[in-house]
Amino acid sequence: xxxxxxxxxxxGKTPGRLARAxxxxxxxxxxxxxxxxxxxxxSVLIILAAIxxxxxAPHDPFNPATLNLMDGFTPPMEPNAFTGNVYWLGTDNQxxxxxxxxxxxxxxxxxxxxxAVILAMVLGxxxxxxxxxxxxxxxxxxxxxxxVQLTFPSILLALLIFGIARGxxxxxxxxxxxxxxxxxxxxxSDWVQYARVVRGATMVEKNKEYxxxxxxxxxxxxxxxxxxxxxxxxxxxxxxxxxxxxxxxIAEATLSFLGVGxxxxxxxxxxxxxxxxxxxxxxxxxxxxxxxITLLALALSVNLLGDWLRDALNxxxx
Amino acid sequence: MVDTVLQVEGLTRxxxxxxxxxxxxxxxDHKQFLTAVDNVTFGIxxxxxxxxxxxxxSGKSTIAKLIVGxxxxxxxxxxxxxxxxxxxxxTAMRNLRRRFQMIFQDPFASxxxxxxxxxxxxxxxxxxxxxxxxxVHREVxxxxxxxxxxxxxxxxxxHEFSGGQRQRIAIAxxxxxxxxxxxxxxxxxxxxxxxxxxxxxxxxxxxxxxxxTYLLISHDLSVVRHMANRIGVxxxxxxxxxxxxxxxxxxxxxxxxxxxxxxxxxxALSGRRRTPVTGEIPNPINxxxxxxxxxxxxxxxxxxxxxxxxxxxxxxxxxxxxxLTEPVGS
Amino acid sequence: xxxxxxxxxxxxxxxxxxxxxxxxxxxxxxxxxxxxxxLGMVGESGAGKSLTGAAIIGLLEPPGRIAGGExxxxxxxxxxxxxxxxxxxxxxxxxxxxQDPLTSLNxxxxxxxxxxxxxxxxxxxxxxxxRERAIALLDRVGIPAARRRIDDYPHHFSGGMRQRVVxxxxxxxxxxxxxxxxxxxxxxxxxxxxxxxxxxxICAExxxxxxxITHDMGVIAETADRVAxxxxxxxxxxxxxxxxxxxxEHPYTQGLMGSIPTLTQTxxxxxxxxxxxxxxxxxxxxxxxxxxxxxxxxxxxxxxPVLIARGSKREVACWLYEAVREEVHHG
Lengths: 318, 330, 331
Prior knowledge:
heterotrimer; A: 318 residues; mainly alpha; MetI-like fold; 12 helices; 69% helix; globular; disordered N terminus; C: 331 residues; alpha/beta; four-stranded antiparallel beta sheet
């Protein structure tokens, strides 16, 4: 060739993956947002505590052998009147350590939340990609269906799905299937927002020239959608998924609070709150208060993280 | 002997620009159609650069998309090397596809931002099964050097490059399937002039080296003058004049061509007196009758408002104007 | 003592604080615009030409800010004015024409409403008088049947007609200076020439000076009296249009001129400047053009060239001409 353009981006050797990640705009924005740092720290703390609950928890609240009814209703940081045992956050009516139940409860809440979000995400992304790329009647059908679903409050929808599912499951399996039913119920009630966002982004991306370039060489539509378009529409999905995680945790708590969620033998944060509210007026406030604070801290910090992520990914706000 | 690479016959494309069905019923409107390309015929010979020049609404980009199969023609045929193009899949069409490529206008949109440069250039190689394994990387490295970049750039992402460098990457991708014919849709209109010069020079070098045939789509007459052997001038979806590049600029036959030439700013400061250009391009949904240029034409005659003029042969091509067939002053 | 120029930009510095330190988008740029003069400001994207215009009219987008130098309108500083007095200067004394006519017109008001409001904000007169003035203005910028069309909304006009309305709006308060930022870039070739003609004629008629910002040398050649060439936020060359276009002195301007394909030249290769303009965070030391310059000398890599006077009207920021001047001195 007659001439070569020195590529100006070449400055010594390329830094490693980790260094580049640290230097990226998103990491920089995180380091400079106190809200994001605090929210991130709280989220990570609760998630880690939940994952390692069996190692951290001083008691196993679900092993009847280790429970002593005499320990019931112990206030926080005070020795029990009969046994002299001290519990950081007190115990409930059955003598279960509240701190340990919170750790195990958060575990279930988070599991349900993550699983429901993943389900909703997979369904929503698939529907959004198909509707956005194909357009026409496929788009019309999927989106009208989504519109109809949106007219129902999602908690009502989850209740409905939960009720129908229980009707099909033999009573013997109901308790162990409850958690899966819950995941499906929340996941199915949440897919619409993913579908809408992905559809919109897909309609923008499919007209871009890089997609046309792939069409010119006759690339298969499935390949165009999955390899070209999908990676470019995931940004906004990540934002909704983060905020969706907070919403799913709350939805799970709401359903469990209403008594249609996970059974009391495997209590989630919502179940704990339902149990605790029965004791609020008899003076045992801690049974309600500490699970509630945990739920609030978890949902709020995940939500704040989602808000920050949305702003950080939006170039117009920078 | 004339070796025609691409032959376009009576190419027509209409778009349905009607309002939604419910609005039409309520407002008692009819369906509306926009004829973006209207009965266009031209041929491109092997090794030449044929340019289509026109302003907005002239249909030049629609023609580019029709030729590479991004749009289906409403009427007319496109033949590549004597074989009619049918964009339904098939082995024959797959083989044809390898032989033509396209370079797009916007180098910021034509490269997938999530793909590494090496993957972008390798995509046609893999799709057409031209190489496999380590050969792909070798070929990508070679192509990067052909377009004036470095082989190490394959590992980078598009956002690490300037506009001109990205257009080089897009050219490398277009070359990777070893095509004979490349459709260049406004390849430099998003670039600064000094970078435009680099890209135009590169395109010429590549043409000499690989014997490429170009269809150049542009609104910029000076770019077209610099690059093309033959030029077709489009106005509202129709070809108004085709001529050899030199001839078109020294002896334009159609009044619209003359007007376009007059509108080009005079860098030489020759003090050339320009005929003032008048009017604007009409709405293509509802174009004027007969010769669509007649409302802006300084030589308009009664006959121009009737039927559209046919192509009349000129010294090196053809022009569609009644001035060439009717006695002036009638 | 020379008379005071209409607009005087002295050592202007515009900076953008960013996470990687402060970026200098405009670095020590000085120029004057005389009464009635058309100054072209040309440069490639990122050269800082639009920012210069925005700095003059006080519309720099935060976090961008003027970090040094002064801007004087008829000898009075306007770069440090508060928002309210600056707003009065915009429109009244400095009119603006932007690239996209749609962004300068409010789609919710008719052309008449917008023109009359502008006229009455800056000139005290009755609604009726303002309306007549507005019609006369539209007529002057070449809107056919102005009296009828004045009550139309902006979307009723075509792109070229809209830009004519914007020109009318910019001139409604009879400003001393019109800043036109890429006024023809969004328009078709055949319409561009018409708009340039209108802008040039109407400003000449009213004695308004024009600062024409564009990337298109052709537009400058047809319109401007003098031209300033910007490169990487610095002035490379400034002088009368004819001199700069026909005998450019700065190697960047020379390359730029050679890289433009013209209708008259044929099969020759275009001159090309290797590489591309540096990004703001990687402007080379010394002369910003030195890595791309065919005449680069040792000195260019260390010392930033100052503007060197070439004749009475021309200045070039290039060390090549310092040598010439020294030789003259010695001889």
